[in-house]
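2024-03-11 09:14:02 DEBUG pipeline.ingest accepted 1 chain
2024-03-11 09:14:02 DEBUG pipeline.ingest length=403
2024-03-11 09:14:03 DEBUG pipeline.predict start
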Amino acid sequence: MTANFLSENNWGLEREAPAANSETVSVSEAERALEELAEVFLQQQSLVANSPAESSDITASSEVPLLNMEAKYRALLDQIPAVVFMAYFDKGIGEAYVSPQIETSLGFTQNEWLEDPVRWYSRIHPDDKMRWSVEAAEMFLSGKTLRSAYRVIARDGRVLWFQCEAKMIRRPDGRPWFIHGVGFDITERKGLEETILEISAREQRRIAQDLHDGLGQHLTGIAFMSKVLEEKLADKSLPEAEEAAKIVKMVNEAIDNTRQLARGLHPVAAEPQGLMSALRKWANEVEVLFQIRCGFQCDKPVFIHEANAATNLYRIAQEAVNNAIRHGKSKNIVISLTAKSGTAILTIQDDGTGFPKKPTNQPGVGLSIMNYRADMIGGSLKVQPNDSGGITVTCMFPIRGIE
């Protein structure tokens, strides 16, 4: 990405950036190398910009260390098993850099990739472009590190998953300097994760079906026979009729528990409107169980054709609502689902107490699981405080086959 593409999108780059977030080990090492490499480039630029009189005073021996440093860091970046990239905001394409792994991964040479300033954006999968635009804009405007997974289309048409981590570096006066980052090919990992999730979901559906058709029907038969026995004992005015009635009640309770367990294992029906129906039903159940207001809003139908994606979204909403009640003490919760141009947004907003006053360094298990579920469907999760109190959980994700 270069300054040309950024200017075309009118992204304001003059804003101050907050403190940078902590990086993972591999990314930190790459960033340190990139920053030092950037310093080498600037030193070289300073040498070239000197006046002829000053340039004549520069000896060949002073240029050699700089060239050696550049060669050393370029060699380091070339060996990193990922696509490393860097682009300045105030320089041309000639100063941009992308590692040779771009050809191994996507089939484009370094020169081919750099000659087109918007090639990266053009190769992003159509279902992920809107999400990428939103997250990239947030990085440029706020200075936050971009961490997300995207699908990228290779030259031969293959679709690859990349875990991207990009960061904008500013000058001491706050002006944007350059952007650098790393893209790890996680296609194989994604495939394995999807296979595991599919197997898990299939087993859950099977168990739910067995509970409904097997144990549920068996208990229904016992309840019917117990009811007949109760009526026979009552006709004879025997005192055991009361005990039989208790048995009937307990068996019916067991039937209800079995149905709830089966529904919990498979909460979303395998149909395009299944997520909408499940969220609406869940909101109604929350109101009855917890005696609070919980509504579901979906102005236009959002059809989700992938059963696993619908289930993951339902679990995200379920976890967000439970957190709002358990930790936030919320009294009003709104679950909303919207879609536009191949991208959908699931939002859970509450009026609770919000984030704890003393935040922990590590995210909770529930938040980590929600992030994982969002990542599995090619989406992103954001948790933000509301101006009027409470928290809003937003999951942006791609959808296909909107009707």
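2024-03-11 09:14:41 DEBUG pipeline.report DSSP finds 13 helices and ten strands in the chain.
2024-03-11 09:14:41 DEBUG pipeline.predict end
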